[in-house]
Amino acid sequence: MRSALFANPLITRVIKNSGYLFSATGITAGISMLQGILAARLLGVAGFGILGTITMFTSVVNKFISFRMGELVIKYVGQFSEAQDNQRAAAVFKVAAMAEIGASLIAFVLIWALSPLAARYFAKDISLAHWFALYGLIVIANLIAESSTGLLQIFDRFRRMAALSVVASLVTLVIIALVYIRQGSFGGILAAYIVGKTIGAVGLTSAAIFEATRRWGKGWWNAPLGLLRPQARELTHFAVSTNISASLSLINKDSELLWVSFLRNPLETGYYKLALALANMAQMPVSPLPQATYPEISREVARKNWSNVRYILRRGSLLAGGYTLAVLIGLLVFGKPLIQYLYKPEYLPAFPALMILLAGFLVANTFYWNRIALLAVGQPDFPAKVNLVLAIIKVTGMLLLVPRFGFLASAALLAGSYLLGVTVSVIKFRNSLSLKEAA
Question: pLDDT tens-digit profile of 107-153?
Fold first, then answer.
């Protein structure tokens, strides 16, 4: 089996690069779990739910404005680098960074402006508005984080990214531990997350600028944007399509805690936050795979090596699906004792939601490549269309079911959206790939 998996050097490179990220993800997941345990025990279920609401609110607003510049950088910097056109490659990174800076500043202003409403309707306490506004500062630290991530990925700087992730998580853990030991307040826990995320974001940006200078020289920032005029329409279309897709994805997958907070209460939000955190154990080694796989399949698509594209995706599915199934079985057996002894018995109502979520994650993880594969074969519109349909179904389901059945309904809707969206996207990709092979 090992021979079959690693016979092709492409999959070996994917595993190696994702391995750097997985090492970091594994360490940071363990660190994050410790962070969560300490925060959950200190704040209680409702306070833990409010913490999740604040962090997710900032993330959702930022992602809503974002144009997913990392994906644009990977596709087009990679394309021009393959053609040895360094001037255009630098120009793509420059325009992506400029667009992301503008989007981040808009997101920051929105967070500050909407923080009173967020506190009133999500946290159910207007006096918490200043915490929503304060946490918005991480958006400023992440001014060009997406573009930086894309550049480091396309040039295989995964080890550097992994190290930065670990350092940021360790800083957060140390501060949270100090707050816990001193029986500190909610503000201390929130400050720990702000400091850690700021260190990670600034480090990522610095690493990307250093890499750009090393590749293209000190004057790379002066690359004229006019060089991209022939590709302007294509670049704009790609950025807008991925932004629409990402914005719709916020409704389908990335705003779960906000829906539960809005339609129910902080107590149920706390249960659901824990269920999502434990379910993410199933995504721990899988989450780096899209980042490591996308540059490889983009290069193989540009070279029209269709057999290599199929090979990478099949082997990736085998690895990701097998791991997720093992985690699902493990948590089915040991999930309740884990919650009871690490987080306190008061968090046990989170267990049913955990099992529901893992069923959806099994499908999503097995075909983790469904979206990036469509981008690689020139179908950036399709994920947006799928997410639009899923958003309509999901919002309708949320409004009808969550007020009655609570956070368990939210978990079921999320798992169902994974099953439907992934299935349709995989079928579309297979058809698109077949057409390209026949051309």
Answer: 999 999 999 999 999 999 999 999 999 999 999 999 899 899 989 98
- For 303, the token pair is 């070279």
In 10 A of CB 423, how many CB atoms? 14
* Number of domains comprising the chain: 1
120, 105, 131, 147: CA torsion to nearest 10: 110
* DSSP H/E element including 207: helix 186-216
Q: Which two tokens stand for residue 335?
A: 């999930």
Spatial neighbors of 342 by CB under 8 A, at least 6 apart, are 37
Q: Tokens 């040991």 identify what position?
A: 334
**b/e per residue 224-241 (b: at least 16 CB within 10 A):** eeebbeebeeebeebbeb
Q: Which two tokens stand for residue 322?
A: 């097998």
Give residue 386's pLDDT: 87
Q: CA dist 75 to 243, 295, 296, 437, Å? A: 15, 7, 10, 20
Strand segments (E) across 255-357: none
What are the C-alpha distances in Å from 386 to residues 294, 363, 391? Answer: 20, 16, 9
Q: Which two tokens stand for residue 389?
A: 């349909």
Please tell me the distance from the alpha carbon of residue 377 to that of residue 142, in angstroms, as a whole number: 29
Distance CA 264, CA 330 (A): 30
Would you give the end-to-end CA distance of the chain in angstroms? Answer: 33
Judge whether 67 and 99 are in contact, CB under 8 Å.
yes
Count Cβ neighbours within 10 Å for each residue of 146-169 and write b for 16 or more, e otherwise.
Answer: bbbbbbbbbbebbbbbbebbbbbb
Residue 365 sits in which domain range?
A: 2-438
Q: Does the predicted TM-score (pTM) go above 0.70?
A: yes
Cα–Cα distance between 379 and 424 in angstroms, integer?
Answer: 13
Rounded CA Rg of the chain:
21
Structure tokens at 70: 């990392």
CA dist 365 and 361 (Å) reads 6
**Structure confidence by residue, pLDDT tens digits, 323-377:** 899 989 999 999 999 899 889 899 999 999 999 999 999 999 999 999 888 888 8
Say which residue the tokens 């959206």 belong to.
Answer: 417
Q: SS3 of 184, please? A: coil
Nearest by Cα to 412 from 249, 260, 245: 260
Contacts of 331 (CB under 8 A, 6+ apart): 278, 281, 282, 338, 354, 355, 358
Residue pointed to by tokens 């690693």: 6
Cβ neighbours of 110 (radius 10 Å): 16
